[in-house]
Specification:
Length: 117
């Protein structure tokens, strides 16, 4: 007994659907973690900047140059507008591009299957 039916297109079998779903969930997740990300990222970047400045000061001392008092250049983080080295919008943009690409490819695949079947 032969099965002459062509297999039907199931949306759930498409890798583009899963890419679309995971990208969308990533975008939702980024929106949910934004407040915690800002706090944590400011701490990480503050430590990075402090280590970099102390490294420069150590190099200056070893080279025999005039010392710089790091306390003079310190800034209260609560008075400065937060500008991140790694902003969250870069990840959100990547997720949005992925959503658009996966959505387009899923639509294109669906239209191709509909026209052939």
């Amino acid at each position: 007994m032969e099965n002459n039916e062509t297999p039907t297109f199931r949306l759930i079998d498409s890798p583009w659907l899963w890419g679309l779903m995971f990208s969308f969930m990533a975008l939702v997740g980024l929106g949910l973690i934004r407040p915690k990300f800002d706090v944590r990222q400011s701490q990480i970047e503050g430590r990075f900047i402090g280590r970099r400045q102390s490294s420069v000061e150590r190099w200056r001392r070893q080279s025999g140059l005039e010392e710089i008092d790091l306390a003079d250049s310190a800034v209260d983080p609560s008075t400065v507008k937060p500008r991140r080295i790694v902003p969250l919008w870069t990840l959100a943009s990547a997720a949005t591009v992925s959503i658009c690409g996966c959505g387009y490819m899923l639509y294109h695949e669906w239209r191709k299957k509909e026209s052939s079947g």
